[in-house]
Specification:
It contains 30 helices and no strands. The protein folds into 3 domains: 172 residues, no CATH class; 359 residues, no CATH class; 76 residues. The protein has 633 residues and is mainly alpha-helical. Helix 2 packs across helix 9, helix 2 packs across helix 18 and helix 3 packs antiparallel against helix 4.
Length: 633
């Protein structure tokens, strides 16, 4: 490592930035330590994790847009808030035995200091939510905090028995059931360590390898640049599990390339947005929400991976087909890969070793937390095998710092979700809302699923996927289970729609990020992404009515379901994009859509007519004159 590089690293981290760096490094090192040697007691582990996360949130995000944390007044306010965080958390650590072993939850009286510190902690989390995530989630959390006090005056299923404000503070601050509940626990154990893993993968420039492989696979075909974007995003999504981060990482390369190839700015941004969103459903890492599913259901992570793999393949296949038809309509050429597969493997192939190790350790049954930690060390060791990936001390410190900053949004979101879940448990609201969904649907499973999908998308607008999913786990999933849907299917259904909120207008965060990089129109990019991802809105309904899509059940049933689903996705892409051998007319698109629905939803009765309708579309396309292929949009 060059001395100048170290000097530059230190020079840039003085004053507040120095405090920020120390806190970030402490958080990442804490996660690595507990990942390797074993986590502390759950309540304590979450306490330390949240302490670092809140301090980072206050240092990283200014109080108001346009303000600067360097301003004296804001710096003083932040220091006071940080002091309040430390004191509130230190009280729990110092009195840990009394809180966890001797006092009785919701029965023992709170002291004045406990009331004050509990209120302070809730207020600081609300401020962190406002700064880091925004007013949408802030409003939701405030609504749930107010609910216990207005519940006794509300009619019908919204009615709640009276609850004292001290009971609410007790639950949220001094138990592992509110702020320190399951959501934050998952962040403190599994999610954090995989964020560190993704940061180290990115630091080794493994994204270049993924990009080169994608270029070799699809670059020469029509519209190859867009297909490179889809495949590269799928590869990176397998490792990062973050939609927005994936857009920034791969989109900065693929979006300009798509535009040079002839795709519009809006289409290029939409392709990257919808492909990057798929990272949350693509094994082996998937998104943070997958670990929350494990915590709520008790289903092993490796089983969740199995459930997710084929729906994820369908998702990306649909995007590739949509992109291909668009390229055919515009008659866009492919591109020659700049680097051969052989050269890419020589430079970066060794970085697959940590990924293979991770998958193997998960398969043999090690805990995700331990696997993630070992995989981080494996990345560091593997990086030394080639100069292109070699990490020095500054690179390692920057990766640790970047990872901790990436954890902030998850930490704040899961703490906020814990507040919500705590209120739901305390008031019994979840059961009443669940029975309300059943009553509203009249026991009709189709209506219940549609209501649940709409609720999931609305809850996810402007919120992290994890928080949106946790709300469903508390309010909606119990209703689906009541209707007879297997618990793993209900959770996967909710998981998918929580992810899709990222590309669903009017609030489509991933689409907005991609539009900014592409220089396109935000709303147009969002609606194109919605169209390209339309298959993903149907896939959850597919595995509700055909769990074989999740690779559950008899082998013969799985094979038939897989084949018909693949053909159905093909038909759907033809219908949506309006192209097969040439531009499709309204009738052909309608027939293709009908074929898709019949083939996608499993059942022996629907397969034959579905294939017949698709055959009619193929025949009509072949017989109709080739008119208007090169008409530009």
């Amino acid at each position: 490592m060059q001395t100048s590089k170290w000097a530059e690293y230190v020079k840039k981290r003085k004053g507040t930035k120095g405090l920020l760096t120390i806190t970030a490094l402490s958080l990442s090192l804490f996660q690595l330590y507990t990942g390797f040697f074993g986590a502390f007691d759950g309540y304590l582990q979450r306490n330390i994790h949240l302490t670092f996360g809140l301090i980072l949130a206050l240092l990283l995000y200014p109080a108001f847009k346009g303000s600067d944390n360097k301003e004296k007044s804001e710096f003083v306010v932040n220091l006071l808030l940080i002091a309040a965080v430390i004191i509130s958390m230190a009280y729990i650590v110092v009195n840990y035995e009394w809180i966890t072993a001797n006092r009785f939850m919701l029965i023992s009286k709170l002291s004045f200091s406990e009331k004050l510190l509990g209120i302070s902690m809730i207020l600081i989390i609300l401020e962190a939510v406002r700064r880091v995530i925004g007013n949408v989630l802030l409003g939701v959390v405030l609504g749930f905090l107010v609910y216990p006090f207005i519940g006794p005056y509300l009619p019908g299923r919204l009615f709640s028995s009276p609850i004292r404000w001290t009971e609410l503070i007790d639950l949220q601050y001094l138990t592992p059931g509110g702020i320190f509940g399951i959501p934050l626990g998952v962040s403190a154990r599994e999610i954090a360590i995989f964020i560190i893993f993704a940061a180290f993968i990115n630091k080794t420039n493994t994204s270049n390898f993924m990009f080169n492989i994608a270029a070799a696979i699809a670059g020469k075909s029509k519209g190859g640049t867009a297909k490179i974007g889809v495949i590269a995003s799928a590869f990176m999504g397998m490792l990062s599990g973050s939609g927005t981060a994936n857009v920034i990482t791969t989109g900065s390369i693929t979006i300009p390339m798509m535009k040079r190839n002839g795709f519009s700015s809006n289409f290029a941004g939409a392709v990257e947005a919808v492909a990057s969103t798929g990272g949350q459903i693509m094994p082996p890492i998937m998104g943070a929400t997958a670990f929350v599913i494990v915590a709520f259901t008790g289903i092993p992570y490796i089983t969740i991976m199995k459930y997710a793999v084929f729906p994820a393949i369908l998702y990306f296949l649909a995007i590739l087909l949509m992109v291909h038809w668009e390229a055919c309509k515009l008659n866009l050429p492919g591109v020659e890969p700049e680097v051969s597969v052989k050269d890419s493997f020589i430079q970066y192939g060794h970085m697959l070793l940590p990924v293979f190790l991770m998958v193997y350790l998960l398969l043999v049954g090690y805990s995700p937390m331990y696997v993630g930690t070992i995989s981080v060390f494996a990345v560091i060791l593997a990086s030394f095998l080639r100069p292109a990936t070699r990490l020095d001390l500054v690179d390692i410190l920057e990766a640790l710092e970047s990872a901790a900053k990436g954890m902030v949004i998850v930490i704040v979101a899961t703490a906020a979700a814990g507040i919500i879940v705590g209120v739901v448990d305390l008031t019994g609201l979840g059961h009443r809302i669940g029975s309300g969904v059943v009553a509203l649907s009249g026991g009709n499973i189709y209506l219940a699923l549609i209501f649940s999908a709409i609720v999931a998308i609305i809850l996810g607008m402007g919120m992290p996927t994890t928080a949106a999913y946790i709300l469903q786990a508390a309010l909606v999933i119990p209703a689906l289970v009541t209707l007879g849907i297997p618990i793993f299917v209900a959770h996967m259904f909710a998981f998918y729609f929580a992810c899709l909120s990222l590309i669903t207008p009017p609030v489509a965060i991933t689409s907005y990020t991609a539009a900014a990089i592409a220089g396109g129109d935000v709303m147009k990019t969002g609606w194109i992404a919605f169209r390209l991802g339309i298959a993903a809105y149907i896939i959850p309904f597919m595995f509700v009515f055909g769990p074989a899509l999740l690779l559950e059940g008899a082998i013969s049933n799985i094979v038939i379901t897989v084949i018909t689903a693949l053909i159905g996705i093909f038909a759907l892409s033809v219908s949506v994009q309006g192209y097969l051998f040439r531009r499709a007319d309204i009738m052909e698109r309608f027939l293709a859509f009908a074929a898709a629905i019949l083939l996608i939803f499993p059942g022996y009765v629907t397969v034959v007519p579905g294939i017949m309708l698709l055959a009619i579309v193929v025949l009509l396309q072949k017989l109709r004159p080739n008119i208007g292929i090169n008409i530009a949009k």
